[in-house]
């Protein structure tokens, strides 16, 4: 690839052209095409010059559309600088995969990577260059609507998924492999910890907690070569991330060495004003550019103020040139100066998008993302059984999730159609809407249930009840559906519930009433087929929760890697003055790492190669697992540790490794893990990242609560190893 002299391009650009390069606008500014510039630019105070010299556009796809906009843009841009096309390809482009919170439950990095590769290929032929993904915000609060976009509450697992998604999106060389897209890790940082679980709300935490739990996955994505970072809407230590110099310059760019493009989230630069740290657009622009934000998404602070700020000496032109250079470097990395149209190809769109092989990946990932939460001998179903399929999701294709953007429900089979493909013995009745129910619906449902051998209830949240700006204070199923479940209970037939939801729910009135519960999340384009395959035992469910299910919203936040406190409650002690509730247990309803199978696994013989370790040694941890049932299955074996005495308090459990193992009926396998001193390090009082001498416990099992326990002592203290 010929080297482009980017710096000389910048030297030949006017101040206005350089500022325009930092502007990102939505597609409606460019529609009307044939070079006409439309969109609300007057009300945003954006001139036609700015649109014609802008650096990137978001939310546009379609090979023909992208090619037309790019061609027009190149005609008007003095320097032949191509537009960057960016979009939210969070869990699929047209072939929609399960939501990331579901993919997290697969614990399958290979499939996660494959799903990102497929998404990238479909987006690339549709003209997209950059995806605003992976979203790796750690979450502990299911009231927050955006938990659906993340892989859960554990930083180790989120980091592994972050790497897998970046590998899938970007491949090895973006200039060579034009069927990939640049990734943009988001939302930097700690957007997933808003007070009250209310979206965009204040985030308040210590630097230690930020580093220990919330930053790991962003860093993992960048270590994997992620090209871009998106700022978050929230404050970090009282300073909005988008204007936070410590977070963006000191930590992201200096400490972590990130020199890629930093883009604001939508409107986040101008939001420095309502946050109360900028009195006007000029102040907001100054704070953002000083913090190192290169692209302003969808607000005109840079456009309207940066030129004056530079001419008045309040901002150096060097900062502007550095931002422009980072943007042009990304365009160069994508090969856009050579080929501004990259992979955009209307013919290829027809071959690649929603191909049979892409659908197969989506189905397999959906099968591995479902989690069996309960099964009192109801599942799998027999094809001879008469099934009454009832509920608002029985015939609904609203199973793509809130961030499925280009996903089309008419390309999505519903559960009734999927079951009918496997058996003719299905009667369907709606039973209720998501939030309302009528007597007629109940009557029809009761009739169907009475005539059946087994009731399958398809219930859940509208996809629009999670996602951005969709936090819920009450995370139970809507009352109408709880009423439907109660009515079905009176029929005294086995009940299997299928849940379609974008967050852990308060399962009162569901888990206790049903005989079996399958958590399907929003399983995507092939989700209904995946569920049908599981219901009929073609697939043995293997998913494990990566986010705790609370007993009630009042228990939030509840997560597995919590601290012990000075007055720990073991669940049985009669002492009064302990850290406990009067009305619910301390443990979550369903813990991190939990998931059932159609078979059973027995863990035995936990053995450590030694009961002591020095920093230059490893401890081998082994355990045997036996499949005692009649189904072949995949078990996710989890390894946790606990540092019994730290320089600061340590979690009661920390996930450090896991393995997926396939076992035939009655088969026994030995699983081995290697544990090193590096896995024992954490941030000390002086913020050094080191390990402690002393006793550690080890836990191995099929969930964070069902474990075998062992122990060892680390013999050597280490000095600061902040590598
Ligand atoms: C939204 C979201 C962000 C998304 C961006 C562009 O506000 O916070 O995740 O990538 O805008 O759509």
From TrEMBL:
<feature type="domain" description="Fibronectin type III-like">
    <location>
        <begin position="635"/>
        <end position="704"/>
    </location>
</feature>
<dbReference type="InterPro" id="IPR001764">
    <property type="entry name" value="Glyco_hydro_3_N"/>
</dbReference>
<dbReference type="InterPro" id="IPR013783">
    <property type="entry name" value="Ig-like_fold"/>
</dbReference>
<dbReference type="Pfam" id="PF01915">
    <property type="entry name" value="Glyco_hydro_3_C"/>
</dbReference>
<dbReference type="Pfam" id="PF14310">
    <property type="entry name" value="Fn3-like"/>
</dbReference>
<dbReference type="GO" id="GO:0008422">
    <property type="term" value="F:beta-glucosidase activity"/>
</dbReference>
<comment type="similarity">
    <text>Belongs to the glycosyl hydrolase 3 family.</text>
</comment>
<dbReference type="Pfam" id="PF00933">
    <property type="entry name" value="Glyco_hydro_3"/>
</dbReference>
<dbReference type="GO" id="GO:0005975">
    <property type="term" value="P:carbohydrate metabolic process"/>
</dbReference>
<keyword id="KW-0378">Hydrolase</keyword>
<keyword id="KW-0326">Glycosidase</keyword>
<dbReference type="InterPro" id="IPR019800">
    <property type="entry name" value="Glyco_hydro_3_AS"/>
</dbReference>
<dbReference type="InterPro" id="IPR036881">
    <property type="entry name" value="Glyco_hydro_3_C_sf"/>
</dbReference>
<dbReference type="InterPro" id="IPR050288">
    <property type="entry name" value="Cellulose_deg_GH3"/>
</dbReference>
<protein>
    <submittedName>
        <fullName>Beta-glucosidase BglX</fullName>
    </submittedName>
</protein>
<dbReference type="InterPro" id="IPR026891">
    <property type="entry name" value="Fn3-like"/>
</dbReference>
<dbReference type="InterPro" id="IPR036962">
    <property type="entry name" value="Glyco_hydro_3_N_sf"/>
</dbReference>
<dbReference type="InterPro" id="IPR017853">
    <property type="entry name" value="GH"/>
</dbReference>
<keyword id="KW-0119">Carbohydrate metabolism</keyword>
<dbReference type="InterPro" id="IPR002772">
    <property type="entry name" value="Glyco_hydro_3_C"/>
</dbReference>
